[in-house]
Each structure stands twice: as structure tokens, then as C-alpha cells.
Amino acid sequence: MDLLEKLEILSDAAKYDVSCSSSGSSRRNKGGLGNGHKAGICHSWSEDGRCISLLKILMTNRCAYNCDYCCNRRSNDVPRASFTPEEVVKLTMEFYRRNYIEGLFLSSGIDPSIDETTDRMLKVAKLLRGEGFHGYIHMKVIPGSDPKLVEELGHYIDRASVNIELPSTRSLELLAPQKTRKAIMAPMAQITDRLMNTTASYRGKKETFIPAGQTTQMIIGASGESDRDILTLGQALYQRQGLKRVYYSAYVPINQSALLPKLDQPPLLREHRIYQGDFLLRFYHFQAEEILTDQDPFFDLDLDPKAKWAMDHLDLFPMEINQASYEELLRIPGLGPRYARRILYARRSAHLSLDSLKSLNISLKRAKHFITAKGKRAPGAFFDPEAIKRDLIGGPAGIKQLSFLP
Ligand code: SF4
Q1: Residue, of 208 and 169, whose pLDDT is higher
Q2: Is any ligand 1 atom within 6 A of the Cβ of residue 80?
Q3: What is the pTM of this model?
């Protein structure tokens, strides 16, 4: 099989992995090729909206495991291929030179064993750096990898991810019985621990260890967990493991299995709502338990999570924008961190009126129902909850809500 045929198979096999965005690396070119600090790996968007980098590939799609939800599982009858480390390096360097990519995202099936696979991936990273490649490298760390290999790999790559895969141990046992939560958490915790203690020198040089940090990916909708379960797990991963990002991937129904749900298409709106909830955790000072409760554990598909929270707490509104704290301003639908900072800054010199907000270029389209300025309500603000909700949805259910917060 020639290299292009392999590329076709192994880039297609990698398309369901969504944890491919890059940021945060500050390593710079010192006379070689490329720059790890440049904004993001080159990526494109697939038909179903997923981010796919041009050189996002698997080392191999042969796999000893048989996870129910995976297109590469052992029992699937699909074309199989494997790259050698030298072939991955050749492709990466050639694509980079032609300006097709800004880096490499490399994952793999397990063939023949976890450590042999990780060792081949390590070889790719070493060869690339040895050839003077300073571009971005993101690699998957396979759960169960020898900690010594993980440690060594960490000195060559910019970002690592260990996929959590499913939101509970029970689902893992059911759909990926060869994987264990313990094996997944071990390299994740090793990397977290190492990142927190990366000060010593390595081989006499200033040490770098996975400078862009680690991420993970969770499949949404292949198992029965609620949105609350998923968001609570995401929150724990940010707080306890210090992850840079948790990626959520709507389950794509490609395999036949009695253990999998019968879906016509991936639950993309649900995935979108979970991402919005994740934004609330990371940028809006919310806790998962505030956004979703035991009684109401799923996101509203009509209203975005922040608007839903506000509608459930109408007793806290309207908020006087001259008195609200930064955290309170962030809770007002339609106001994000940028607007909240603008308001705080402008408030230092004067009390703000509705006209002042206008001159600050702050849109009140959504916020108007939830604020007062110098005690005055904005024109067009409603008091009736149903009218507010209708205005927030702004059209056929969920359509206008397919945007990001605020
Ligand atoms: S180990 Fe990874 S590649 Fe192999 S079947 Fe499971 S999810 Fe797929």
C-alpha cells in the first residue's frame, strides 16, 4: 500500500477525535522549521461541524481492543493500515513545507500492544524534533502506557490528551470493557503532577514538559449519563487535573450493537449545550451544580444554559448595572466577560445610564429584560416570564440558540 492510500485510511479513521485545537505553547523556533507558539494547528471543519486538522492522523487503525462505539474496533471489517514513524515524519515535514499544516495531531489504535504503540509515537516525536521541526505536536497518550514512555514523550510534544471516553465507570465497563478508569486516570494524573512540578532541568537544559498542557475527550450520547453527570465530571477534570480543555463529542452511530442507543444522527444540539455549559464553568464563574440540578439534569434544548439559569432565578433580576459585581454582571444574559469589564471600567468615572451603555457599544438585545441603569428599565423589556422566554428563543425553538454565549 502506498503512502497516500495509507494517508486516506488513517486520516479518515482519525476524524472522530475532536480534541484537536491547539493553543498555549510558547516554544519558539531556534533556527529550525516552524513555530509551536503560532495560534493553533491548521484545521478545517467536517460536514458535521467537527474540527479536523489537515494532518490529523492515526499511527495505525489496527486495534487489539473492541470498544463498541469505535469505527476502528477489532471486529469491524474496514480497510486497515499502519504508518511507520519515518512515514509520519516524512508526511509532516512535507505538508509543513508546503504550508498545508502548522502541526501534527497523532493518535493511534493499539497494535500490537500499548507500549509498542506509544514507543512508535515517541519515535515520531523524537525524529521530528531531531529534524528541526518546531511546529506544534499534539499526541494522544494511550491509557495504560508505561509511565517512563509518557515522561519521555512529554519532553517532545506540545500537548497531550488522554481520552476519558465515557462519562462513568459503568459505561466504560459496558462499552469498552478492555479499558479501565484507573488505566485512563493514571497517565492523566502523572501528566498533571509533572506539569505542577516542572521546574527542574532536563539533561542540563531548561525543561519543557507538554507546554500546552493536556486535554481530554468524552463521548456524548453513547451511554445513559445525564448532562449533569457529564458537566460535573468536566468540572472535576478542570479542578482536579487542571485540564486545558474537555472536548465533548456527540456519539456518531456507526456501529451496530445491542448496547448502543438507536440514533438516526449524532446529538449535536445536546453536544452544543454541553459546550455552552462548559463555557459557563470556565469563563462565567458558574458551578455545574448551579446550572443543572438533580431534579432537572438535562439542558433545555430551546434556551441556552445561561438564559435558562436566569429564567429560573428571575427573583435576582433586574440587576442594577451600577451596583452589580463582575460575577453578577456575568450572570446577565447577553453580557459576557468583555461587556462586563467594559461596564466596570466605565463605572469608575460615572454612573451609567442606558444611553451610556449604548455609547459603550453594549448590545441590550438579550440583556434588556434583566437590567436597570440608574433605576430605569430598558425600552422593550418584558416583565412576563413567557414573553421574556419567547424573546430569548427568538424564533423556531433552538435555531437562534445555536450560537455561543453570552
Ligand atoms: S482502543 Fe481506541 S482505537 Fe481501539 S477500539 Fe477502543 S477507542 Fe477504538
Answers
A1: 169
A2: no
A3: 0.86
